[in-house]
Amino acid sequence: MEPFYFSKFESRRPYKPIPDNKYRTLLFQFTGIVSIALGFAYLNWRWRHSLNPDAMWFAILLASAETLSFLSTILVVINFWSNKDAEKTPPLHFLSEIEETFGRPDRPVKIDVFIATYNEDVELVRYSIVDAKKLNYPFADVKIKIYILDDGRRDGRDSAKQNMKKVAEEEGVGYLIREHNEGYKAGNLKNALENTEGDLFAILDADTRPFPNFLVNTIGYFRKRDVAWVQTPQWFYDTTPAQKLSYVINNKLKNLGAENKVIANVIDFLFGKITFNEDIFGNDPRLFYEAILRKRNFYNAAFCCGAGSIHRREAVMSLAIRDFALQIKKLEAYLAGKKRNKTEIKNERKALLLKQEIIPFKFHASEDIYTSMMLHGDTLNRWQSIQHPDVECRMLSTQDLDSWIKQHERYAAGSLDIAFKDNPVFMKGLSLGQKICYFNTIWSYFAPVWLLVFLLSPMIFFFTLSLPIKAYSFDFFKYFLPFQIMNTITITLGCWGIQTKRGDQYYVSSFWFMLMALFSVIKGEKVKFNVTPKDKVLALNKNFKHILPHLVIIALSLCGIVYNLIIISMGSHPSVSGFAANTFWCLLNMIDLSVMIRAAYWTPDSTLEQSISK
Amino acid sequence: MKKYSFVLKPMFFIFNLLFASWLVIKIENIQPSDVSKKKSLFVKEDIKVENSNFAKTHFENIYSDYKTGIVDSATFDRELRNFLEVESHSRTGSK
Questions:
Q1: B23, A34: Cβ pair inside 8 Å?
Q2: How many domains does chain B have?
Q3: Per the CB < 8 Å rule, is B71 touching A474?
Q4: Is-contact A250 A259, C-beta < 8 A?
Q5: 8 A C-beta contact, residue A458 and residue A466
Q6: What per-residue confidence (pLDDT) applies to A532?
Q7: What is the mean pLDDT of residues B17-29?
C-alpha cells in the first residue's frame, strides 16, 4: 500500500483507560462541593462588596464574565460527579440475544461496517478497508459486511477524480453511492441503511482504522435490549511527538549553521526531561472521551460522535418512523385547523406519505449529537447509550490549523444551532441529568463571551488605569485564592491521569473562531458541513487570518505593560498592585494565545525520528 | 448494617454541604490583622487581643487599611466594632 506521512506512527499503541476508583470519586465529590461553595462566596463578595463605583461598567462586565464562567464550573462538577462503566459481556451470536423475534425463526446476527467517505485519497481509505477486513468475530456464521459509502460519487464516471469504486472492488467490499449530497453524512448513512440489512452497524470515517477486536469488545453490550449505540474513544495516532529541549535548540543552531553536539549534551544533562511540541494542534481528545463522555454514562447521557460507534438499527429506525408519524400528525392538525373536509385531509396525507422520507439520522451539521439527543429523549423506548472506555480504533488528526479550525467551528456552530432551534433544556423526555449534560456541551461553546472579557480586561486596565474592583485587597485574595486552589484540585481529581494543559490552552486560544461561530448562528446562517481534510494540508497563508486577533491582543498587552511601566517610573501610577495583578493575568493569557500562533506556523520536521515518540 | 448502607451517600453529601458552609463562614470572618498574628486562622480564642501594645498596632492596621483604600467603609466599620468589642472584653476580663 502507498505510504503516507502517518506511516511512521504505525507502531504507536493507544493508552489504557484509567481504572475507576471509588475513593477518588468521593474525594472529587467532596472537593467539588467545597469548590462550588467557595465560588458562591467569592461571587457574593464580588457583586456585593468589590465593584468599583468609579468604573462601574468595567466592574459589572468582569463580574458578569466571572459568573458565567462559574456556571461552567458547576456544570463540570455535575458532569464528572461519578463514573459508571457498563459491564462488559462476550460477543453475541443470535438475533434473539438482542431483540424479541416474535415467533420468527432465529438466525445469527448480521453486522454491517460502514466506511463513510467524500473526497479523501482512495489509497488512504484503502488502509481503513484493509483493517476492517481484519476484524475478528468468534462466530463464523455471523456475517460482517463492509460497505464504502462514497458521497463523492467516485465510481469512474469522472476521470478527473480518483476511482473509489475500483478500490472497493479490488478489496472485495460493498460500494454504495447516491446521486446527491442531501443531508451530508446523515444523508449518506440514510442511503446506506436503505440498501443494507444489518441488525447492528458500525460507523467508521474514511480514516478510521479499527483494531481487530473492535467488534468482539463492543457487540456484547447490545444484549441489553435498550442499548441504542456504543461509542468508542477516538484516538489520533499521528499527533506531533514530544521533542527534547536539546533537540529543539540544536535544530535552531543547525539552521544558523552553528550546530554543536557539546551544547546539546549539556542541555540534555541539565534539562533532559523538558520536552516541547507534543500534540502541537491540541488534537488529543482523551480528555473528552475519557473524562467528559465516559462519566456521562452515569446519567445515560454519553452522546454519539460518529466514527468508532456501533448502532442498533432498530433504534435509529424507530426514531425515524416516530418523526415520520409526527409529520403526518402535524399535517392533519394543520388541515383540521383550516377546516378542510375528510377527503381533502386524506389526499393531502397520501401526498405527504409519498413525499416524506424516513430519516434515521437527523439532517444536521452535528447529526451525531442531535440524533443522540432525540434517542435519549424517546420516552417510548428509553434508549441507553454506552461510552466504551477502551480505544478500539485509530484515526488521523487534522494536520494544519486551518483544517483544525474548520472542524471545530463546525462542532461549535452545530451545537449552538441545536441550542437555538431545539434546546435540550426544554426537550421533553430527557432526564434532568441528561439535560444538564447536553446543556454543558452547548454552554461550553458560549465560552468566548467570557473569555473575550478575560482577555481584554488587563488591557482595559492598562489604558484606562481603572480597576474593575475597589482594590486588590486582603478580601480579594481571601475569597479568590481558596476558590481557585480548590477548583484546580477538583479538576485534577476529575481528570485524574489525563493531561489537561494543552486542552486548557486551546480552550482560551479558540475564543475567536468560537465567537465567529456564535455570531453566525445568531445571524441565522446555515451551518456548513465542512469535510475535515485527512491528508496533510499546509496552508500557512490561510492561517494568518485565524491568529490575527491573537497577535493584536498580544501586541496591545505588551504596549499596555510598557505604558504602565513608564507611568510607574514617573511615580504617578494609581495602583501598582493592580498593575502587578493585571500583568500576571496578561502573561498567562499570552502563553495560552501563543499556542495557536505557534500551531499556525508549524511545519513538520523532516528529521522526526530524532525526537521522542510517545 | 448493610440494610442501612443506602443512607451513607446522602449523609456524605450532607456532611460535604455542612463542611463547605462552615468553611465559607470561617473564611468570611478572617481579617487582615489575623494573618501572622494568630496561631491559627480558624481558632476563635485567638481573636482576643493579648496586650495593649498589640491592640494599638491592630487598631492602627485597621485604620491604615481603610485610609489606603484596602478596605471599604463597611468593612472598616465592622472591623472597628469587632476591635472595640474585643477590647472591652479584654478590659473587663470576660471572654
A1: yes
A2: 1
A3: yes
A4: yes
A5: no
A6: 67
A7: 92
Task: Establish if A493 touches chain B: CB-CB under 8 angstroms.
Answer: no
In sign, the C-alpha dihedral spanning B84, B90, B94, B95 is positive
Q: Does A478 touch chain B (CB under 8 A)?
A: yes
Question: Considering the entire predicted model, what is its pTM?
Answer: 0.85
Contact A478 B16 (CB under 8 A): no
**A424-432: long-range contacts (C-beta < 8 A, 24 or more apart)?**
A424/A373, A424/A377, A427/A373, A427/A377, A428/A377, A428/A379, A429/A376, A429/A377, A429/A378, A429/A379, A430/A373, A430/A376, A430/A377, A431/A299, A431/A300
What residues in chain A have per-residue pLDDT under 50? Answer: 607-614
Residue of A nearest to B19 (CA): A34
B56, pLDDT greater than 80: no
Residue A385, phi then psi, degrees to nearest 5: -120, 155
3-state SS, residue A190: helix
B-proximal residues of A, 256-275, CB under 8 Å: none
Q: Give the pLDDT confidence score for residue A614 in this predicted structure.
A: 37
Which pLDDT score, from 0 to 100, does residue A610 have? Answer: 43
Mark A217-232 as b/e (b = at least 16 C-beta within 10 Å). bbbbbbeeeebbbbbb
pLDDT at A320 (0 to 100) = 86
Structural domain that includes position B56: 2-92
Q: Which residues of B are less than 8 Å from A479 in CB distance?
A: 27
Does residue A122 contact residue A90 with C-beta atoms inside 8 Å? Answer: no
Which ipTM was obtained for this model?
0.76
Query: Does residue A315 contact residue A229 with C-beta atoms inside 8 Å?
Result: yes
Of B5, B18, B19, B24, which to mutate for an interface test with A (greatest number of A Cβ within 10 Å)?
B24
pLDDT digits (tens, 9 = 90+) for B63-80: 888 877 777 788 888 888
Q: Do A38 and B28 touch (CB under 8 A)?
A: no
According to DSSP, the β-strands at A235-236 and A110-117 are unpaired
User: Looking at residue B61, what is its pLDDT?
Assistant: 80
* Confidence band for B36, pLDDT divided at 50, 70 and 90: low
Contacts with A216 (C-beta within 8 Å, 6 or more apart), sequence order: A91, A136, A137, A138
With vertex at residue A525, the alpha carbon angle to CA A524 and CA A526, rounded to the nearest 5 degrees, is: 115
Q: Taking Cα atoms as reference points, which of A423, A421, A417 lies closest to residue A435?
A: A423
Per CB-CB distance under 8 Å, the chain B contacts of A51 are none
CB-based contact A33 B65, cutoff 8 Å: no
Residues of B in contact with A483 (CB under 8 A): none
Q: What does the pLDDT read at residue A89?
A: 93
**pLDDT by residue (tens digit) across A195-232?**
999 999 999 999 999 999 999 999 999 999 999 999 99
**All residues at 6 or more sequence positions from B84 whose CB lies less than 8 Å from its CB, including other chains:** none
Give the whole-angstrom CA distance, residue A185 versus residue A528.
12
Question: Given this model, what pLDDT does residue A612 score?
Answer: 42
Query: What are the grid coordinates assigned to A249, written together?
Result: 535548540
Taking an 8 Å cut-off on Cβ atoms, the answer to whether B70 and A36 are in contact is no
Question: What is the set of domains in chain A, with CATH numbers?
Answer: 19-80+437-602 (no CATH), 95-232+304-394 (3.90.550.10), 243-276 (no CATH)
Task: Find the helix or strand (DSSP H, E) in which A205 lies.
Answer: strand A200-205
Separation of alpha carbons B11 and A238, rounded Å: 47
What pLDDT score was predicted for residue B94? 44
Residues of chain A found within 8 Å of residue B71, distances taken between Cβ atoms: 473-475
Cα atoms found within 13 Å of the Cα of residue A372, Cβ hemisphere only: 28
Which residues of chain A make contact with B13, given a CB cutoff of 8 A?
Answer: 29, 33
- Quick check: A37 and B20 CB within 8 A? yes
What is the C-alpha to C-alpha distance for residues A430 and A439, in angstroms, rounded to an integer?
Answer: 11
Judged by phi (left if over 0) then psi (alpha if -120 to 50, else beta), residue B12 lies in alpha
Round to whole Å and give the CA distance between A9 and A147: 26
